[in-house]
Amino acid sequence: MKQYVIGSLLILAVMKPGFAQKKASLKAADLSINLEVLSRNDGRIQSVLRLKNNGKAELPASGWKIYFNSRVVKTWAKDSTIATIKHVNGDLFCLSPLKAFKTVPAGAELQLQLALESMNNVTERPQGFYLVWDKNPDHGESISKLTYKPFPAHLKEEQELAAKIYQRNTGIKDIAESDLPAVFPTPVSYAKQEGAFKLSAAVQLVTGGVFEKEAKGFADELAKILGKTPVVVKASEKGGIFFEQESSMAKEAYELSIRSEKIVIKAGDAAGAFYAIQSLKTMFPAKAWASVQTVISLPAARVKDAPRFGFRGFMMDVGRNFQPKSEVLKVLDLMALYKLNVFHFHLTEDEGWRLEIPGLPELTAVGAQRGHSQGEQKSILPSYGSAAAAGTNSGSGFFTKADYVEILKYATARHILVIPEIETPGHARAAIKSMDARYSRLMKAGQKAEAERYLLRDLNDQSKYRSVQGFDDNVVNVALPSTYAFLEKVTDELIAMHKEAGAPLTTIHFGGDEVPAGVWEKSAAADQLSKTDPEVKGTDALWYYYFSKMNQLLKARGLYLSGWEEIGLRKMEVNGERKMLPEPRFVNENFHADVWNNLTGNEDLAYKMANAGYKVVLTPVTNFYIDLAVNPSFEERGQNWGGYVDVDKPFYFIPYDYYKNVKEDEQGNPVDLSVFKDKERLTEKGKSNIVGLQAPLWSETIKTPAQLEYMMLPKLLGLAERAWAKDPEWATTTDAAKEKAAYDQAWSEFVNVLGKKELPRLTYYSGGYQYRIPTPGVQTGNGQLEANLQLPGFTIRYTTDGTEPGKNSLIYKTAIPFKGTVKLRAFDGAGRGGRTILIK
């Protein structure tokens, strides 16, 4: 989605008579920027951008440029004679003065009036401003003093949203913790028994010679809780936790018997034993990880369990913004606890290559660094506000080979399969620029053949295109033999790393999405290929040629191809309309397609592909894209091009009949289910091709571990429940009244489990997670204010004197008199607060 900006440029100071221009000595640190949103009319944002000169030297009339990341932006009318804003590439723009520009003295201000077609929330504001002097074009200085002021109608919109949230929360019942399900995600069966097992540091873990890795891993976990590592033995006559192998049990299934004298874990494989351990851990008190426990009482019970889907995935994007290895390991801990078993590792993007590949140093020396660099020989251009200097924020960073091997070992020990993603042929700008830098280095050394060995673009390509993200040079040329040499090299190095780690590698995800129109149309290499292979003519044919080659490359190494839905689609003319339909030539090639597009017009695309024979991972944007904002609040982080996703969207998704429970469209409006009456339904054959569910977390708006955890939790727990547990009653009944009653009860149970058990646990587990604490719902009327919360177990605190509510502020219990100003904020049990809501 692109937003168009028009504006008016004003100079709020003029040169004094006789003022002599001094040599420029102003620094970026002397500048500050304030963006004030003035109004929102007819969907258009009117704002003003103020650049203030706080230094002692003037900002001269020429000789400088200011770069920044933004939606599409430009000056207009008479101001186009004063200054110009040009699109550089991607989301990078450049403001530069023209001849009519006047010097801005010390203490004065440059004002740029803007009107944006839309600015949905805080994450879509212009950002990453930096100054470059013409005399030193290879060096940029970040303008770090940035402030933002919301629009006047902001308060009204926030209050209206709080009222809607209140209404949504009214159906949630407060359920006593003792009445909540004991195990999460919901097991196949749970039968309560009499008595309890007293778990202490004296407990023995008895393996009987099986599942020893899992037992030792559990002992290490118990040491954190009990203060001492329990003994792991092969046999014992005493009580303890016993592991037994039952070969007749299904993969990943387990049985758990808790009696007062012992606990018995039965499983057919190590994964099943591991998941039994995770179920035990969710039976521990939520605060068990907060401090050393003397004894933990586990209620006697019998549990029989197995997952619904064999693929229960989470996709982590580190390409657009990097996350450190420590955060990746925390994510793996979280996945393991909730029985997610596929880590889709999105390692490369237009904006960053994040994995060391031996023999190709430029991939990380250039492609993993974002910063201002002439010709991008030292780094790739800034994106998403990463600003001027490389290596200083989440725009830069990569995993060494040793890091990656460590991550693989960590995941494998937790029965998590890692699927690396190397985005191609689109979304590949970091790789292309890296190989350009390699080409330049080797050409200077006189090594022409070696320079061309891994080149990813046709040097004579005159094709014109623009990707969705604004790039005109982000697609590898699939007609070049060097492209396949590069991808073969990367594939073989990935295989070697997985082998070194002892980690399985079944597939590599090669992307395939969002290749723009116009690519390869004027490529000399593509033209030459069409002459030697007449069947390869035009971009559609080149698409099939590319994925045929990649399929062969992977099959020769015992792997299968994974990608986004486009790997199994082709463009066809249907009743005069260009449509994407399943590509029949790849149906029997075991392609695994992550189908994300279920937006208007494509609601049945996943079912079409599964019915046609493709292996489908359900990854619908409307329900599982957890990078989307939770709601339309201007203060919420995330995007909204595919709608809004809170924890309810993953929870109420019905995999085999997802039309049945659609509640709103991508604009958040109620949906009439009759719009799905002519959509393709999933056949029995199609059901067999649904391999699982996946939630992606794209990182355009995520720059820190805390921001990642805020977007990930608690949404990911909805996905965990839906991927593991069988269809609930409300998903299968045909009685509308029964469906509503059953759903309301299930939803109340789920949010009570989150609020009273799982999120309190995650406050301490694996060092603690910065999950999102929901904002209160608020309703006013008749001089009263009422508030409620999505998560029972959390506390609403408030103030009436205009101060920010803190962990010692008044607790909201019942309706309060409403006059003047009230601020409300939710807190978890550890005293951490969410975002404040102002009502006045």
Percent helix = 25-40%
Runs with pLDDT <50, length 5+? Answer: 1-22
Return the average pLDDT rounded to an integer. Answer: 93
Secondary structure class reads alpha/beta
Separation, N- and C-terminal Cα atoms: 35 Å
Please summarize what this structure is:
This protein is an alpha/beta fold. The chain is built from 19 helices and 36 strands.
List the helices and strands and how they pair.
Elements: E1 5-11, E2 31-41, E3 44-53, E4 64-69, E5 83-89, E6 92-97, E7 109-116, E8 127-133, E9 141-142, E10 145-149, H1 154-169, E11 189-199, E12 204-206, H2 212-226, E13 231-233, E14 240-245, E15 254-258, E16 262-267, H3 270-283, E17 296-305, E18 311-317, H4 325-337, E19 342-346, E20 348-349, E21 352-353, H5 362-365, H6 401-413, E22 417-424, H7 429-444, H8 448-452, H9 481-501, E23 507-511, H10 524-532, H11 539-555, E24 560-564, E25 569-574, E26 577-582, E27 592-595, H12 605-612, E28 615-618, H13 621-624, H14 648-651, H15 684-688, E29 690-697, H16 705-712, H17 715-724, H18 729-732, H19 736-762, E30 777-781, E31 784-788, E32 795-799, E33 810-811, E34 816-817, E35 822-827, E36 837-839
Parallel strand pairs: 2-10, 12-13, 12-14, 14-16, 18-19, 18-29, 19-22, 22-23, 23-24, 24-27, 27-28, 28-29
Antiparallel strand pairs: 1-7, 2-3, 3-7, 4-6, 4-8, 5-6, 8-9, 11-17, 15-16, 15-17, 20-21, 25-26, 30-31, 31-34, 32-33, 32-35, 35-36
